[in-house]
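Reopening this one. Same input as before:
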Amino acid sequence: MKQKVFSVDTERCIACRACEVACAREHGGNAHVFLTPADGGRLLPLCCMHCEKSPCVESCPTSALERVAQGAVIVHQSRCIGCGMCIIACPFGVISRDGERGVQKCDRCIHRLNRGREPVCVLTCPTGALIYDAPDTMTSRRRTTYALKAKKK
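Same output, byte for byte:
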């Protein structure tokens, strides 16, 4: 299976928070994607990037974080001791405490991926700003977009 990654088309995002709401609904009230301030006061969605070499996974003393076949980095709550090493190690600041249970983070809706479905944030985005696809497909799509813009000028 070809690995897929998340991407945000910053020109399409309207900061409607539909991704946050859908994620919270899908994960029992806890959103794992959230809007964060960016340049110029814009808000952009941010979630776990599921890094190929994941500092969070490498820093976990109990192996509570694991990269699975779909490329997602997931948390095994039963192994998590809540030490917070993954929170410190995450370069994007997207792992947070989850009360008594330990930590929480985006899992790419692993339960949906296992059934051949897309992450709920991607399906819910009304403008198509959230993209979940193979990197080469996204690169090709981006080239086409820029070529069309250049042609109009």
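So the earlier flakiness isn't reproducible anymore. For the record, The chain has six helices and eight strands.
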